[in-house]
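Hi support team,

I submitted a single chain yesterday and got back a structure, but I'm not sure I'm reading the token output correctly. Could someone confirm the output below corresponds to the sequence I sent? I've pasted both exactly as they appear in my results page.

Thanks,
R.
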Amino acid sequence: MPKQRIHLRYTLLGDGTSDRALMPVLDWLLSQLAGSLPVEGMWADISRAPQKPSNLRERVLFALDYFPADILFIHRDAEAQPPELRHGEVRAVSDELSHLLASQDVKTVAVVPIRMMEAWLLFDEPAIRLAAGNPHGLVKLKLPKVKALEGLSDPKMILRDVLVQATELQGRHRRKFDIPHSVQRVASSICDFSPLLHLKAFQRLKADLEAVLRQQGFIGK
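Hi R., thanks for writing in. Yes, this is the structure output for that exact sequence:
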């Protein structure tokens, strides 16, 4: 039986730089599952790799070398593919590197939103308005219902359009609006991600993470 631990470190390995917006989501979920346990999150910045990794296995090896942690979250957007395919990719790499993971006492957890990460940021209107730099804006924002988020064909474009709309800017100022930075601000401005618990992909992430936390001794049996 693993001993109870008093501090947790995790690393998030994403598909691209925008995926860093998942860190507030993970921080919130960990706070729900592990209570007041101190948590330190790290972003596996692929740009720091001596040689650019060409596949998932190489990215995982890079993350293990440069950002050692107790849990390695591996983000893969489902996009147009079945979520199980992405989970299978993460599982296959984890199995291939099982000896290395065991020697470092690291567990992997797949993070597979349907279809894209941005779907998990489309439910909090105040956070979107704040990220757009116009928290008291009056323009009506057409946000999808939470239960419809996993059926959106292009949540990334929807979030971008809603953010631009929320600015209420026009002309040159509208064109210069920094969308990537604002996406990060949406995530960091959300205090409660519990609405995502209605989504199958988020439910699976929660269940997988809870199992790992128990295996690692961060929460009791």
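A quick pointer for reading it: The mean pLDDT is 94. Let us know if anything else looks off.

Best,
Support desk
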